[in-house]
Amino acid sequence: MRTHLENGTWVNEPANWEVSADHLTMTTDQKTDFWQKTHYGFARDSGHFLGVSVSEEFTARVRVQGEFRSLYDQAGLMLRIDETRWIKTGVEFTDGERFLSTVVTNGNSDWSVSQPFQGLEDFIIRITLKNGAARIQASSDGKVWPLLRLAPFPSADRYLVGPTACTPERGGLNVRFSDFDVGEAIKSDLHDLSV
Questions:
Q1: What is the share, in percent, of the chain residues with pLDDT greater than 70?
Q2: Please, are residues 73 and 90 in contact by the beta-carbon 8 Å criterion?
């Protein structure tokens, strides 16, 4: 089912954004980020996130388009309980290349990156929350869905899920999100990448 981002709630609303029934565009503000402590020692909760409320198991997905060129430019999906319990996943520019990145935070953040396919300026990302675990997958064509991460995630009465973007080293990244939907959790086998 299509879920309208017009009903979403901002965490750190950017100065420039526009939302309609079928897409969200935003431009990141200066030095925005989500991170908790690990390695760097700092805690940041200044990234942009437009979340819709969900209260049961689900799969959320969104198409992401942008020109990611500067260190740590990032955009994708966030699943959030509060400032210390969240997941962000999507594209991130690091070491001179675009990667698919996932940060799982439960008090402290971790970080993993992969490159299962090229073309990371236009892709689809999805999160399935089911049985206490977040299953994170991405696709370049909507047909093949490589697994990026399977991670435990705390239980809560309510979650927020939706598009996120950050630029820790700059501002001015333009991102377009479209085809956002939240529906029943997919039931396919973990190793079935075709659904």
A1: 98
A2: no
Distance CA 2, CA 79 (A): 17
Q: What is the pTM of this model?
A: 0.95
As a whole number of angstroms, the distance between CA 122 and CA 18 comes to 19
Give the Å distances, CA to CA, from 34 to 66, 81, 181.
19, 13, 23
What DSSP string describes 72-94?
A: T-EEEEEEEEETTEEEEEEEEEE
**All residues at 6 or more sequence positions from 39 whose CB lies less than 8 Å from its CB, including other chains:** none
With a cut of 60, say whether residue 36 has pLDDT above it. Answer: yes
Q: What is the pLDDT of residue 157?
A: 94
**pLDDT value, residue 2:** 55
Tokens of 81: 């309980």
Count of domains forming the chain: 1
Is residue 20 in a domain? yes
Domain limits for position 31:
5-183
Residue 1 has pLDDT above 70, yes or no: no
For residues 155 and 18, what is the distance between their CA atoms, to the nearest angstrom?
32
Q: Confirm whether 192 is domain-assigned.
A: no
Higher pLDDT, 168 or 20: 168
188 falls within a domain: no
Q: How many CB atoms lie within 10 A of CB 47?
A: 24
